[in-house]
Amino acid sequence: MQVHPVSAAYRSTVGAMATMRRNATPALGDSAKVARVVLDVAAMDDPPLRLILGSEAYAYAMKAARLRAASDAAWYELSTSTDRHDATTVDRDPLGSAAD
Q1: How far is CA 72 from the centre of its chain?
Q2: Residue among 63, 48, 54, 53 nearest 16 (CA)
Q3: Do 53 and 34 contact (CB within 8 A), yes or no?
Q4: Under a CB-based contact definition with an 8 Å cutoff, are residues 33 and 55 in contact?
Q5: 61: helix, coil or strand?
Q6: What's the mean pLDDT when you consider all of the chain?
Q7: For residue 78, how many other CB atoms are within 10 A of its CB?
Q8: 85 phi and psi, to 5 degrees?
Q9: How confident is the model at residue 41 (pLDDT cuts 50, 70, 90)?
């Protein structure tokens, strides 16, 4: 597979995957195990809406989630600045998560 140069904006995502491919890092996943899980999930009455398979995928997904949460928190004041003036504390906490 030919991997073209990755621009700076995409080095942490696309670039990381390109580096893995370039270094021929063997994947940890076992395709037979993945197939078994896919079949098991397909047969579930209440399957997960999102499923991360493999240690590598889990590590990348958790890192992305932490970065996204940190970014969202950094912009909290701007995000909530659009609330209407008469919004109550309860209105601003629709999930009741302030106590968590």
Answers
A1: 13
A2: 63
A3: yes
A4: no
A5: helix
A6: 89
A7: 8
A8: -65, -30
A9: very high
Does the structure show a pLDDT above 90 at 17? no
Instruction: Name the more confident of 22 and 97.
Output: 97
Name the token pair of 62: 């958790």
Query: Which pLDDT value is given to residue 35?
Result: 96
- Give the whole-angstrom CA distance, residue 36 versus residue 42: 10
Domains of the chain, by residue range, sit at: 8-83
Q: CA 6 to CA 18: how far, in whole Å?
A: 8
Cβ atoms of 28 and 55 within 8 Å: the answer is yes
The DSSP element (H or E) to which 2 belongs, if any, is none
Q: How far apart are CA 4 and CA 25, in angstroms?
A: 18
DSSP state of 38: H
pLDDT of 76 reads 95
Residue 48's SS3 state is coil
